[in-house]
Specification:
By secondary structure, this protein is α+β, with helices and mostly antiparallel strands. The chain contains 2 helices and 4 strands; from the N terminus they run ββββαα.
Length: 86
């Protein structure tokens, strides 16, 4: 198991990556500090199982997670958590 911490667009994100979890799939988890929403989760937490080797093929856990967040942010025109006075 690998653990990494990145700052993505000002949000601290902890990445936990377990290759071949249960011998069946790669597993990646994202946890945003203070449960800040991310483009892949409104709760600040996301767990995802992927085909074995998929994360490695994308350069490892940090590269995969960053690309995933960037891709989803562009896809949904994500602006991040915005505060409203009303």
């Amino acid at each position: 198991m690998e653990k990494h911490t990145i700052v993505w667009r000002g949000i601290t994100v902890e990445i936990t990556y377990t290759p071949e979890k249960f011998g069946m799939a790669d597993h990646i988890e994202l946890r945003a500090a203070d449960r800040t929403p991310l483009p892949v989760t409104e709760t600040g937490y996301r767990s995802n199982f992927l085909q074995i080797g998929h994360v490695a093929a994308h350069g490892g856990a940090v590269s995969f997670a960053t690309a995933w967040l960037d891709h989803e942010a562009a896809r949904i025109d994500w602006k991040g958590a915005q505060l409203s006075l009303f």
